[in-house]
C-alpha cells in the first residue's frame, strides 16, 4: 500500500463528499476501546492527529449544537449503544459506502464515473493502513460484512434524530475515522 499524502487525501475527500451532508473526520486512538475514540470524534472533542482537513457541515452550527449537544447531529450515544448499532464490514464495503454517499445513497450512475469515485474512496481508506477494522450501521451488515450495495443502501439503524443516516467508522492501531451521511428530511 502506498502512503497517502495530505494533498491526495483532502482532494479525494472534497471530490467525494463536499456537496453531500456528511461528516468525514479522524481522531487519534487513545483508549483501549475504539468506541470511546469514535465518540470523541462525534463529540468534536479531538482534532485530526495529522492536522488534515475535516468535512463537518455542522461544525459552525452553534444553535443546533447548543440544542442537540456537541455530537449534533448524532444522538448522545454511550459506548454500549454505539457498539449495539454498528456491525463489522469489510474495507471494500466501506469503499462502496463512500461511493454510495456520493450518489445520494443510490447506485453509481456510470462505469466511467465509478472508476474515479472508487479510486478516491480507496484513497480515503488507504490513510488508515492495512490493519483496519470497519463498522457500519447499515442493516445489511447485520447479515453479512460484505453486503450487496449495487442498489444502494436500503436500511440503517439510526445514530441521529433524522429520518435517515448511514455511515461507517474505520479503526486502525493509530487512528479512527468517522464517515457519515445525513438525510434530515
What does this structure look like?
The chain has 185 residues and is α+β, with helices and mostly antiparallel strands. It has one domain. It contains 6 helices and 6 strands; from the N terminus they run αβαβααβααβββ. The protein has helices at 6-17, 34-42, 62-68, 79-85, 91-102, 111-126, and strands at 22-28, 55-56, 87-89, 133-136, 164-171, 175-183. Strands 2-1-6-5-4-3 form a 6-stranded antiparallel sheet. A hairpin with a 3-residue loop joins strand 5 (164-171) and strand 6. Helix 1 (6-17) packs across helix 6 (111-126) and helix 5 crosses helix 6 (111-126). The longest helix is centred in the middle third of the chain and has 16 residues, at 111-126.
Q: Which class of secondary structure composition applies to the elements?
A: alpha+beta
Query: Strand portion, in percent?
Result: 15-25%
Number of domains: 1
Lateral arrangement of strands in the main beta sheet: 2-1-6-5-4-3
- State the order of secondary-structure elements, H for helix, E for strand: HEHEHHEHHEEE
Rg over alpha carbons: 15 Å
Observed structural traits:
6 strands, alpha+beta, 185 residues, six-stranded antiparallel sheet, single chain
